[in-house]
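Session log. Operator J.P. requested a structure for one protein chain; no other inputs attached. Running the standard single-chain path with token output.
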Amino acid sequence: MNGYVMETRQVTKTYGSFLALDHVNIHVRKGCIYGLVGDNGAGKSTLLKLLAGQSFPTEGEIEILGKHGLKDLENVRKQMGCMIEQPGFFPNMTVEQTLKYYCIQKGIPDKGRILEQKAERMNTLVNQFYDYSRLCAGDFKMEMEKTDLSRVLRESLMENFRILEEAHLKVEADLPSHPLWIMGNQPALERIFLNMFQNGGRYAESIFQIAVKEENQEIFISFTNDTKKLSPEDLPRLFDRFYIQDSARSQGGTGLGLTVARSLAEEMGGTLEVSAPELPEKEETQNLIVCFELKFKVWDFL
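Structure written below.
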């Protein structure tokens, strides 16, 4: 790939003698938002239908994620989502109900948990985009109050343990039973922990470890896992917005979860960093070890 996730080269579409698209060339880079502006009939919807595979160009070539040709494009479009013109949603139906409705319409059998996972994934994507837009706009106002970080972490792990369980990970959690008081916001902490668990479920290979350390009036929470899907070169970019490592694209991330988590931590006066710790010589593995460390200041409320 050359840095573009989507390209068109001299794409032309005619309907009989009517020219709908005239030798269109576009180049969309990874992580960018690309807008089409034009009058009615300019060909915006026609171009989107060509990209989505709902119609085919009369001339020219389309390339998506480095793939071109009918068969390769058919496969790569399975990673795409496309909504053209009027959205097909019903205001009185949930995301899961809407997905079930279209499964029935298209004759797709209900796969139970698979459908539920898709609904959960869609809900996660919407929440991440919403949180990110509010943070960027300075509209994310959180009320800071005395918060037991230890309790919020334990409860978040129990509520989201299924994410790690379904990834078949060995989970090790060394969590204190006593309160760890910080000045924070419980919903923001829950969002950070959820993003950490989702990141582990998406990238971890076999283990996921959580450890808490208190030192010099600071609390350190580490989330450590092994992975085959990342390289050391990926680590500096993991907090970049919309960054998704190529081998994990099919798992439905936005590249925003870690960006949101770090921003929320900073809003509460904390930090979130990533590193690749070296293992002792006796512990050898071919997988990369990745550690996310969350840090907050301990507050004395006496």
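Operator note: The first helix runs from residue 44 to 52.
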